[in-house]
Specification:
- The chain has 293 residues and is of the alpha/beta class.
- The protein folds into two domains: 141 residues, Rossmann fold (3-Layer(aba) Sandwich); 145 residues, Aspartate/ornithine carbamoyltransferase (Rossmann fold), CATH 3.40.50.
- 41% of the residues lie in helices and 16% in strands.
- The strands form two sheets. Strands 1-5-4-2-3 form a five-stranded parallel β-sheet. The protein has a five-stranded parallel β-sheet with strand order 8-7-6-9-10.
- Helix 7 links the parallel strand 6 and strand 7.
Length: 293
């Protein structure tokens, strides 16, 4: 059976928890192994991201594998027109694929993208399982393994990481308060589904309300809907949550809310730990999709 991780639902609560525990159990994120020896991973990026490309390439190469990368191009149209005919050809050459910027919901519904190959979704507007798992692994470390102690504030416009965190909130006992810019739209259906499954999720009126008693701040997207003055991440804002650690859940320069450089370089920003945990998560995801058990 071909394994895919397009959303966290493909892992389920037990799989997600096991993967986070295994990722935290890797003492050295840069550790090398031979698991991918003789295997090739295909990176198909409709939306380009140097950070994601570097992270996945490092994971595969440190496990003795090879990587083939294709960025934006006519391959998207080719696969859309002839998915059944082209999938076996790709399957012949590679052992697994990562997709970036491809609609995960349509992939699940129609099974039109590389259905014969183990597939991992690096991120799109609907889901970003690896980032969410890596960020939850950060929270595990600072709550001594007890996610019920994690009070998470999301600031900014939604993206795939937020929707994967919503899925995770239905599995694990952390609370999530979401503060949205006035012009930002959120998928209310996904919010309600998470609540029905037990997630402790609230959409609040202001970022100040979201920050109340939180110990983790997730900085989301800007996407042109946020006032740089009103939604800037600075020292005054962080003073409202003096014990909170900050997680960057968007592209730091291009897509994120504006974050002052001194904040990025400060001890409360977990940027390096996020990078380390993403590398750990990708290594465990490769084991999960490629191993029979």
């Amino acid at each position: 059976m071909v394994k895919r991780v397009l959303t966290l639902q493909d892992l389920g609560p037990e799989g997600a928890w096991l993967l986070m525990q295994q990722a935290n159990g890797i003492p050295d994120a840069l550790a090398k192994s031979s698991f991918m020896d003789g295997r090739t991973a295909l990176l198909m990026f409709k939306k380009e991201s140097l950070a994601e490309r570097l992270c996945v390439t490092a994971a595969v190469r440190q496990m003795s594998g090879q990587v083939v990368y294709v960025g934006r191009g006519d391959w998207v149209e080719d696969l859309s027109r002839c998915p059944v005919e082209l999938s076996p050809i790709y399957d012949y050459y590679v052992d697994c694929t990562y997709i970036m910027g491809i609609d995960a919901a349509s992939t699940q519904r129609s099974e039109k993208y590389l259905t014969r190959i183990p597939t991992i979704n690096l991120g799109n507007a609907e889901a970003c399982p690896p980032r969410a798992l890596a960020d939850l692994a950060c929270m595990l470390r600072f709550t001594n393994g007890d996610l019920s102690k994690a009070q998470v504030a999301w600031l900014g416009a939604p993206n795939g990481t937020l929707y994967s965190l919503l899925e995770a909130a239905a599995y694990f006992p952390f609370s999530l308060r979401i503060a949205l810019p006035r012009k930002a739209a959120i998928n209310h259906y996904m919010v309600e589904q998470a609540r029905k499954e037990g997630a402790k999720v609230r959409i609040v009126e202001s970022k100040e309300e979201a920050l109340e008693h939180c110990n983790f701040i997730c900085v989301g997207d800007n996407n042109g809907v946020c006032s740089a003055e009103d939604w800037r991440i600075d020292g005054a804002l962080l003073e409202r949550a003096p014990e909170a650690y900050m997680l960057l859940c968007s592209h730091v320069v291009r897509d994120s809310l504006p974050v002052l450089p001194e904040i990025l370089e400060g001890p409360r920003t977990l940027l390096l730990l996020q990078a380390e945990n993403r590398l750990r998560v990708h290594k465990r995801l490769l084991h999960w999709v490629l191993e029979d058990e």
